[in-house]
Amino acid sequence: MKRLLVILVIGMIATSVMAAPKPEGLVSIKVLSAESEANIAFVMDQFRAEYPNVKVEWIQEDLSDGSTKTAQAMIDSGDPFDVYFGYMGRVSQYIDAKFALNLEDYHSDLNDYFPEILDGVKRDGKVYGLAGPVGAQGFVINSEMWDALNVPADIKKADLTIDNFLGLGRAVRDKWAGKKWVTGMFAKNQSGDYLIFNWFAAFGAEKFKGGDYSKTTLNSPAGVATMKFLKQLYTEGLIQEESFILSDDDYAQYWAQSSYLGTAWFPSWSDYYFKTFLEQGVIDHTFDTEYVRFPKGSGVTKVPTCTSYTGIVGRETGDKAKNTVIARMMFYMNNGPSQTVRVIKDKNYATRKSVTTKLTDVYWQQVDKIIQDNGLYDLGLSDSKFAEVRMEMFPRLQNLFRGKESPEEAMAIYEKRVNAILADR
């Protein structure tokens, strides 16, 4: 994985797909995605150049609660999607030999992917999905708030500890009295949970160990310490009182309103949210930022960062010609030219070896340094049970903040429920 994170791509070579029959007559395929068709015109232009007569029905995914409800409703209705293009944590549920197209029968360029990435979309040794460019988050410091606090010179942004972060939290509380907070927190649903999980990394708690997705290892002294810390933030008024009913959309708006001193964020998000909220009149100015690693707990040497990336899966239809069209759509969604566009636009890392240029964006470089120094946190995004597993943390946080579960109880319940899900394969 580290190799993936050092290399970026700009190669525009379109690799090949195995020869297969062309569809006769008009073929229609359904593409499910949170992206609008217009937003990935660079994909559709390539596809339509080869298949001008294929009808593509673009179906917008409902992400109101961050679940796979749109995909599952289509399958349950007997009218399933043919291609699912979206967050790997949702798509991975369908990267399964019983449902998905075996891409080894259709794509001849699979060796262009980094092996570590390809392993994540294999089931029983066969490739049943694709992984798009990887986005990594950092701990973004709001320089406007930092400067206003007159932080002591011996506290460095790039070397924060949990202890001095708590001290900063009390300073924020005392200065802004419930109008600004030291960090953001939300627990309305599972959407955006990778933002929250980086706090577990800060204490050295691993969700999975050594790539073993048969059980979670989060219920540990480090995991309990993380939950105690989150409860402390809530009890002391260092995060919003309504955190247990806030969503990641609320979190994004509060961040753009300069409400958080330091929190998890992706470099590509800033321009979008600043522009959107300026145009809507929600904010009247932007602010400078700096990306550093998360504050670290006692005894922790490195704090790996969480990622979010695109997954693509195609349905096995039983029709060789239609399968070919589906495979070609998947190819164009993730070939060299398409990855190059997304790498630049989203400040991501390519998953193809042929795409080779690093970005010069200063924020991307700051996050890249975090990765090189600390590594990546394993959320298990590409595991087929991830979508079910991620349903288990936000209820624990809700009950933790409401006083219905202690940190120890929350971790024990999480472990029991997650391991039951992981055992049911």
What does this structure look like?
This is ABC transporter substrate-binding protein. Belongs to the bacterial solute-binding protein 1 family. GO terms for molecular function: maltose binding. Keywords: Signal, Transport. It comes from viral metagenome. By secondary structure, the protein is an alpha+beta fold. It has two domains: 2-135 and 308-374, Periplasmic binding protein-like II (D-Maltodextrin-Binding Protein, domain 2), CATH 3.40.190.10; 138-304 and 392-423, Periplasmic binding protein-like II (D-Maltodextrin-Binding Protein, domain 2). The protein has helices at residues 2-6, 41-50, 69-76, 88-91, 115-120, 143-149, 162-176, 193-202, 221-235, 248-256, 267-280, 320-334, 336-346, 362-374, 386-389, 393-402, 407-423, and strands spanning 28-33, 55-60, 83-87, 122-123, 126-127, 130-136, 138-142, 262-265, 289-292, 307-314. The strands form three sheets. The protein has a five-stranded mixed sheet. A three-stranded antiparallel sheet has the order 8-7-9. Strands 4-5 form a two-stranded antiparallel ribbon. Strand 1 (28-33), helix 2 and strand 2 form a beta-alpha-beta unit. Helix 9 crosses helix 17. The longest helix is centred in the C-terminal third of the chain and has 17 residues, at 407-423. It is globular, with a radius of gyration of 22 Å.
| Main CATH class of the largest domain | Alpha Beta
Classify the secondary structure makeup into a structural class. alpha+beta
Strand order of the largest sheet: 2-1-3-10-6
What's the count of strands?
10
How many whole angstroms does the radius of gyration measure? 22 Å
Mean pLDDT: 93
Characterize the overall form.
globular
Fill in the CATH topology of the largest domain. D-Maltodextrin-Binding Protein, domain 2
Taken together, the total number of domains comes to 2
Largest sheet: 5 strands, mixed
- Terminal residue distance: 26 Å
SSE order, as H and E? HEHEHEHHEEEEHHHHHEHEEHHHHHH
Please identify, by name, the CATH architecture of the largest domain: 3-Layer(aba) Sandwich
Share of residues in strands: 5-15%
Unreliable stretches = 1-20
- H/I helix tally: 17
Overall helicity: 40-55%
- The CATH homologous superfamily of the largest domain is termed Periplasmic binding protein-like II
